[in-house]
## 1
Amino acid sequence: MKIKILTSIVGLWLLASCAAGLSDSQDLQEQKIRQIISEMTLDEKIGQMQQSNDGFFGDDEATKQAIRDGKVGSFLNMVGAERIAEFQRVALEESKHGIPLLFGRDVIHGFRTIFPIPLGIASSWEPDLAQEAMRVSAVEASSMGINWTFAPMMDVTWDPRWGRIAESCGEDPLLASKFAVAMVKGFQGDLNDPTAVAACAKHFVGYGMSEAGRDYNTTYIPEPLLRNVHLRPFKAAADAGVLTFMSAFNDLNGVPTSGNEFTLKHILRDEWGYKGMVVSDWASIEEMIAHGFAADKKQAAEISVKAGVDMEMASTCYADNLKQLIKEGVISEDLVDNHVANILRVKMEMGLFDKPYDNHVSTDTILAPSHLKVSRELARKSMVLLKNNDNTLPISKNIRSLAVIGPLADAARDQLGTWIFDGNGDDSTTPKEAFGEILGNRMNYSSGLEYSRDKSTKGFAKAISAAQNSDAILIFAGEEAILSGEANARGIIDLPGIQTELITELKKTGKPLILVVMAGRPLGIGAEMDMADAVLYAWHPGTMAGPAIADLVFGDFSPSGKLPVTFVKGAGQIPFYYYRKNTGRPATENDVVYIDDIPRDSKQLSLGFKSMHIDYGITPLLPFGYGLSYTEFKYDNLKLSSKEMSTDGAITLSADIRNIGNYEAEEIVQLYIHDKVGSITRPIKELKGFEKINLKPGDVKNVSFELKAEDLQFYNGDDYIIEPGDFEVWIGPNSDEGLKGSFVLK
Ligand code: GLC
């Protein structure tokens, strides 16, 4: 009888799947999924929807029993390759249905070989290299049994107070989308390969808009901004085949994103047709009680399971309540079946039912020289040269003596940055080590401060003496790793402690002063930039920070990074992002009356009735897309293939970029547009393309971009539209400058 029913289920499914246009292999996969589900008890189905932290069920024997009993579908933070292999063996060979487990881990910017923080990776504007780095991360993580990473994080943010800006790719949706796709491809690679690691598009959605940059805070995002900015990287990742999504902590317009039917169902499933799996963030389902959106765990379970969260991370609202909710008729078992199908589909896409679970438990890939080489290259390309007066940099390796000073000059763990689970400071090469290896006793090292928050000047004298006995000063300042990352929001975004005082004292020596900043966010370093002769922003560069910085300081390579986020003068300027609106009273620099210039007896009502700050003015410290190199690039000869574009057409824009300096270097050429009039107000600029080129002195390259009408589409509150009208365009080195042209979309 059972076989007969089963045959009819499969038969019905065949019919349905043909109607749905599934390929044969997909169809067979769906059949297998439905068949397994048809043989599972309700308890076993609910078990698949549970992701538990290592140790949740007790010791390893208790964990194995929970696996045999079908109580769990995935673990996170489980360590030990042999343990993981053994647990997977138990799942495949000793559980009733032989359903494999997903072993999740936060492999955010490296596993043991650590790359720059994602904000640094984004500064490279080189998605292909990011893909290579994430592939390395997957090879290392999978060798230790991890088959799912909770990355890439693709929250767009413009708030340096938010500690998780470190994990983001900054403020621009196009740049964030390119890196999201590259990182997904890097992690997942060939899904049939044992080194494949399922990626996770997180945190869906809008988390980067946490009010005041305070983590987990409320977010209000009007639908045009949600669709024109925040959803874009997630859509790109979904289209690129990311296997999983993670819902977020934040309350989005009054509805927590882990219980938000509009985003999880209407957009992700209905609009985008996404077939992957959604996992909650850590206890984010249960946290709907604290949000005041659920009265208890049972209601939280009902809200999330109806909204579309397939798997619950860490908390047990599902495990404790779904069976009762079905019994009471509040939800159907079919709804649970669909969630389980999404989970099983990922496990099948990963080939986990068939993949041997222990053939790649090896450690010879960990910190392989080829991995460290990628880390050093990406670290080098992530660093942004912010200032270089009188070509202070590069300095010669034959320098008589160089002072290496500062609390981040030898901070092996801090240089790795935030979200380091398996990375190890002992693997790091610090700047002190790298410069010492090159200079020997020609390096005068003194930390000056013990750590970035240190408030003791007891080390100043030695540091100043080291500087006085040297021909130039390299001061490594910034933030310890713990000052950025999840929940580590800062309201004051200056250099912590008394680092500024140390820089001030070093400046008094009159020696060339090179400031290298290691940080997890854009810092308000205006005063320090004024004092330094050269400034290199290194973010938290990872394992190979030292060699990468030495490569640049000594000129083996020219810096090429560009800012993926606006640098503000101080927290009072936030939010400040390049794609801001013009307002009805835009100010120019000439309109600004600065607070110190206001006449003492001023009787004016207002200082100009324009949109400005009378202390910060109207410009940020540094604009999005900004970055210098050791050479100079000249932009010339802007050409448009036409001054008109039809709403289903395209034009080509090009310019000549010439290296008119003395150094071979890379330049990131950027294309921006401005839609002058729209059915909603439009950003003053939008990045629509970028290309990194490498030029030797005297070389010139013609860079061209195809701009399609569809690239000009936006959501205006009612629909996605392509609106005829006048457009301005720029091809330039950053969001503030470039060759300007215009065209008409007809
Ligand atoms: C954290 C983070 C999320 C991470 C998860 C598992 O709270 O919000 O990004 O992947 O929990 O560690």
Note: The CA atoms of residues 269 and 275 lie 7 Å apart.
## 2
Amino acid sequence: MRRHTLALLGGEPAFEEPVYITKALVPDEAEFAARVHSVFEATWFTNHGKLVRELEEELRAHLHVGFLAAFCNGTTALQVALRGLKLRGEVITTPFTFPATIHALHWCGLTPVFADIDPRTYNLDPASAAGVVTGDTSALLPVHCFGNPCDVRGFDALAAEYGLKVVYDAAHAFGVEHLGRPIGCWGDLSILSFHATKVFHTAEGGAVIGADASYYDDLAMLRNFAIVNEDEVRGTGVNGKLSEIHAALGLTILETALREFDLRGRLSEHYSARLADVEGVKIRAPEEDTTHNHSYFPIEIDEERFGLSRDEVNLALRAENIFARKYFFPLCSENEAYRNHPSAHPSRLPHAHRLATRILCLPNYGDLGIAGADRIVESLVALHESAPLVRSRLGAPRGS
Ligand code: T4K
């Protein structure tokens, strides 16, 4: 292995330019321009336009789901899914997620109730969720964190036992299949994010998906102000529509995104092989019987064995121009809006708290290339080998 002199110890940074956790895919410009031109020709920019309908059908067929309703972003898709199921009271969810998951509950007037994660999968643990079910619980909202599928059978059983709905936040799980089923066909409804940081994206965008196509009309009504027709508005809707320009981007980028999933798969395999023997770096074992999408590459840093805390590693990598991310820190249960709920007490979420201080997502996108991944691995190895010196150069307190 090439030895790398760390920038903190007087060497050159591993990269000349900043390397971020991801790099948004860019569509074929001519193809995109042609689609945008068709929008201009039609003078039809939004409101159930032709390109949105085409995108919905293309993605539905690709993902093998019963229906797909496109939205302006994943957060609004989640709010409308929750509203569409007419949920009330408490919804059990994970603290280890992007803030949008919990905010969506709160914006819908629902009470997020936290349960702990399974440290093996990083996902909400059905056994822990079972411990916080009350008479007010109406649903479960697990997240397929980093695209790794939840214990879907465990949640099916829990939902059946207590008569609960299951909504999956599948923002990271585009294209994942688990136990022979597309990820979007588990539970009642699932949501996707098509944000620019996602492999398949529409700049901003999202979707509600599910096996049961009879949900589509209600969700489509709610995303369009709850307008049923010229003479009727039924309840409280929102403006959650995707525009034709965003749909044009999605239609153009799909093929590129499918190739990108393959490239990320190769990078993930390479990272896994090269990091396997680095002391103090743990890689989550992928779920079996699963088609993974390799959207993210999370590692866990064990401070005692690695010699540096996750935060110290993160800081030292920045000196190398490597901008890893502490997804997901801080935990959502620590947010001032939620932390007073009894379920948010750290003593009830030990696995989530432990993981949130250890996790680091490494840059993982096709353009990085195997050589780029190697440089990141070499930087991590060098950090481990020079840990005491790095710590003294950082001057940071332990575990900060
Ligand atoms: N549920 C879960 C579990 C989620 O993770 C998310 C979103 C949602 C729900 C809600 O879905 P949306 O309503 O967003 O559709 C990003 C995204 O904004 C967010 O969509 C995503 N999860 C989350 C995991 O990541 P930030 O604040 O970390 O992104 P930012 O701006 O720091 O970008 C990260 C890196 O991506 C940049 O360093 C470079 C690259 N990038 C970013 C943008 C915006 C690009 O290459 N091009 C770009 O245009 O939240």
Note: The longest helix spans residues 244-275.
## 3
Amino acid sequence: MTELSVSILSADLANLAAETADSMVCGADMVHFDVMDGHFVPNITYGAPVLKCLKKAVPEAFYDVHLMISDPARYAQDFAAAGANLINFHIEAVPNHVGQTIAAVRETGCLVGLTISPSTPPQAVFPYLDELDLVLVMGVEPGFGGQKFIPTTVSRVAAIKAECNRRGVSPRIEVDGGINTETASLCAQAGASVLVMGSAFFKAQDRAALAKQVRAL
Ligand code: DX5
Ligand code: ZN
């Protein structure tokens, strides 16, 4: 059983509430909310005020917030207050303050996810595995939806899963970027328990059938 987190970055953003509600109706377990600041990544999306409106419009959703921003500790409380259930931040954004940033997110009451970009070795998250609810492994360079999955992601997920097993801990392992039915299956086999889908989900002819297929992995 795999959880599906639908990335609304690929939705019709003029109809965000309706697209989010439809994702839930079609079987999404989570709504993946991609926050980009034009500094940590070369793109800008939306922030806490948009999440707050979305939470009001679709309160039943679990909001999986993915912060691709340079100063996650500074803004974590804003996202928590706006309705985030889980906050992911990038290890590359705060290389010397990972522990403090985990604590700052934990303080907000949200679940804590630590994210690694494709060029960061999976071993970088090992020291923090006991403190995390989730590890988010990027399948593409962060910044844009619709990119091609980087195949080495699969072995990176497997390395993190093996270390979790060795340590007897079980944070969720989530993969984000380039997920379609084929790459979803590879990631699930390697130990991923949450899969993010953006463009593949919103382009699908039958979103409910796709969600069912991914959740059955
Ligand atoms: C990329 C984002 C992803 C992206 C996924 O920086 O973090 O969540 O929207 O989109 P797809 O599934 O199209 O790769
Ligand atoms: Zn994301």
Note: The chain has one domain: 3-215.
